[in-house]
Design a protein that fits this description.
The chain has 388 residues and is an alpha+beta fold. It has three domains: 75 residues; 99 residues, no CATH class; 167 residues, hpI Integrase, Chain A (Orthogonal Bundle). It has 17 helices and nine strands. Strands 1-2-3-4 form a four-stranded antiparallel sheet, covered by helices on one side. β8 and β9 form a beta hairpin. α8 runs antiparallel to α9 and α11 crosses α15. It is globular.
């Protein structure tokens, strides 16, 4: 009697990780009831309903199975690109390009419901995405369904060459709109940005010295066009906050009679209440006199709008260079500097969390730099305790 080959999907991974990274889309491992493993092709339901393809077994030979799946995917991709009826229903019939996909995102509730500062950041990073040339053609002109992992990787390499900060933000923005195209709008069935490995970089340990901070601040406050970048960086340092939250700080979040600021951190959504020291109280008084008619505490002096991430970074670089400081220093390191100064002052991590807004001690790890003097004090205190 023949064995009935009912399917049981296998969650184990007998194939190596490197091999699986090359596995064609819609291929999965399955096992027959007798325990024999085979490969199965499981394409999207819409393509099956359209009669373009079907769910089928590909056999037990991996090389032959994956080759067959690649051939099936070529036919499927051709249909997806030419599926004008579905594109028309989803509002993409006029421009099924990356430019068109970005335009759809900018018109969607997923964009319009974002905060103004986040909207500006998305616009900037998506413009970088669309302007990046791969094989001599701007990505914006590509049909979004033909963006493969190799094309995405080539673009990402160009962004990394300009800086890891830019690269990660553009990649994240691209991944976001491709996720929407895949899961919300059903415009495609794979996201080339999702599996793209970010460039691994060692954890930063850089801190600013008091002399370096003084030189930067003196240079920033020496010119009207640089002053507010100095204010943003000073707030980040004195209060141990992220630059992003300080650059978008609004006057509505300044409680003048209590000499404090109240805001919600953009990364973790934590409601923050931070008292201001005497130096910052004076700074806020000056800012109120100079920019009290704008929405933001430290806006761009010409536009009155908050600084974009890119403009803040570029202006900060000019200030650093004018102050004669090295390239190893970055404004974002001010938060790490503040955390480590607090540790040096004898505060423990749970106390510092009240300032930084971290909700778990472990989440502070990227900001803590091992210090031999602190270690020496801990060892000395422990020894004293043990000898009592």
């Amino acid at each position: 009697m023949a064995i009935r080959k009912s399917v049981v999907f296998n969650t184990t991974t007998p194939t190596s990780k490197d091999e699986l990274s090359d596995m064609p889309r819609y291929v999965m491992e399955a096992t027959y009831a007798n325990g024999e493993m085979y490969w199965r092709y499981n394409p999207p339901k819409r393509a099956i309903d359209a009669g373009v393809t079907e769910r089928i077994g590909l056999g037990t030979d991996r090389v032959k199975a994956w080759k067959k799946a690649d051939d099936l995917n070529v036919a499927l991709d051709t249909w997806m690109i030419d599926d004008s009826d579905h594109l028309r229903k989803t509002g993409m019939s006029q421009a099924p390009t990356v430019d068109g996909l970005v335009a759809k995102f900018l018109e969607s509730r997923f964009y319009t419901q974002l905060g103004k500062s986040t909207q500006k950041d998305y616009k900037y990073f998506l413009s970088v995405l669309c302007d990046t040339e791969v094989k001599g053609v701007p990505l914006g002109s590509y049909k979004f369904k033909v963006i493969t992992k190799s094309i995405a990787s080539a673009a990402y390499d160009k962004w990394v060459a300009k800086g890891p900060f830019l690269a990660e933000h553009v990649r994240g923005s691209a991944r976001r709109i491709w996720n929407l195209a895949e899961n919300e709008w059903e415009l495609l069935y794979h996201n080339p940005w999702k599996s793209l490995e970010p460039t691994k970089k060692p954890a930063r340990k850089q801190k600013w010295t008091q002399d370096e901070i003084t030189k930067f601040m003196e240079m920033a406050f020496s010119k009207h066009q640089w002053r507010n970048v100095g204010v943003i960086v000073l707030l980040a340092y004195e209060l141990g906050q992220r630059l992003g939250d300080m650059r978008t700080l609004e006057w509505d979040e300044y409680i003048e009679h209590e000499k404090m600021i109240q805001f919600t951190s953009s990364k973790r959504g934590v409601d923050m209440e931070l008292p201001l020291n005497e130096g910052l109280i004076d700074i806020f008084a000056q800012q109120l006199n100079k920019f009290g008619d704008t929405k933001y505490v430290a806006p761009h002096p010409k536009s009155g709008e908050h600084y974009t991430l890119d403009l803040l970074s570029k202006t900060g670089q000019r200030i650093r260079e004018a102050a004669g400081l090295g390239k190893h220093l970055r404004m974002m390191d001010m938060r790490r500097t503040a955390v480590n100064e607090a540790l040096d002052a004898g505060m423990d991590r749970t106390q510092i969390m009240e300032m930084t807004g971290h909700q778990h001690v472990a989440s502070m790890n990227p900001y803590v730099v091992q210090n031999k003097e602190r270690a020496k004090e801990v060892i000395k205190a422990r020894k004293t305790l043990l000898t009592k």
